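Hi everyone,

Forwarding the result from last night's run.
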Amino acid sequence: MTARLPVTRALAALVEHTTGRPCGIGELPRVEGKSGWELAAAPYTVLDSLPAEFGGPPLWDWHADAAWSYQVTSVGERGDQVQWLADRVRAGVVGRTDGHWTHDLLIPEVRVIDRELTYDAGGEPSVSAAGAIVSYVQRVTITVTPA
């Protein structure tokens, strides 16, 4: 079975690359500042792992396929800001050009065989009680097989 951590790191790097904004893995992203590592300013994304599905041979066989699921939460100060960021996430992760993925998702020792957007907030951002933070949730599944 394919290890999850390389898939997670590659997906976070792809989200950062295609949005041009920081992406934290399971936590708020940090950027290097004048006094060391600081929390990134909005807008940014947070990538969280969700339950996975497996197919093919038994899990003890390293040739099994794995469908790793993630939630990408775009966080900003305004609704238009998070919708813009979510558009870039969507285009970066599942966007296609001429029948091929627009952006490569390169993961050592595995081949990505599918990418799927399984949930999208549909333009309905969630606003915090204080009104200072807006978020937009998307869920994606990345299916990989050993190379």
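Residues 76 and 82 are 5 Å apart (CA to CA).

Cheers,
N.
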